[in-house]
Amino acid sequence: MTRTWEEPDHPEIPYGGSRRGKAAVREFFKGVGHVQVSSFEPQEYVGSGDRVLAIGRWSGQVKSTGKSFKSEWIMSWIVKSGKVKYFRAYEDSAAVAAAFRK
Fold first, then answer.
1. Among 64, 68, 60, which residue's Cα sits nearest to residue 99?
2. Residue 80 near residue 50, CB atoms below 8 Å
3. Beta strand 4-7 with 68-80: parallel, antiparallel or unpaired?
4. pLDDT greater than 90 at residue 1
């Protein structure tokens, strides 16, 4: 199973979109580097077999605009043999995109 990493796809969010493969996942983390994270708070976990759901919230400030945002999120993970094989996040992409907007 190829690593798949999916975030809400929005043209103003540099870490958004779908990625496949290890090198592409690194690009996600470069995109998140545009945000000064203020808080990251997982609040609940639900697991079944290889799948884990995490529910939480985060807030941050976009470095290039100085604008802040808050968003709740849900993350879905599939982990096999101790390695992440699939990740998908759901968040308030409108709130995050507004903070990226100049």
1. 68
2. yes
3. unpaired
4. no
Q: How far is CA 94 from CA 1, 16, 79, 90, in A?
A: 31, 12, 29, 12
Question: Letter for the amino acid at 64?
Answer: S
Domain boundaries, the chain: 4-100
Q: What pLDDT digit, counting tens, does each position of 32-68 carry?
A: 999 999 999 999 999 999 999 999 999 999 999 999 9
The pLDDT confidence band at residue 3, using thresholds 50, 70 and 90, is: confident
Q: What is the pTM of this model?
A: 0.89
Pairing of strands 35-48, 83-91: unpaired
DSSP string of the chain, one letter each residue? ---EEEE---TT-TT-EEEESHHHHHHHHHHHTTEEEEEEEEEEEEEETTEEEEEEEEEEEETTT--EEEEEEEEEEEEETTEEEEEEEEE-HHHHHHHH--
Class of CATH domain 4-100: alpha beta
d(CA 73, CA 29): 17
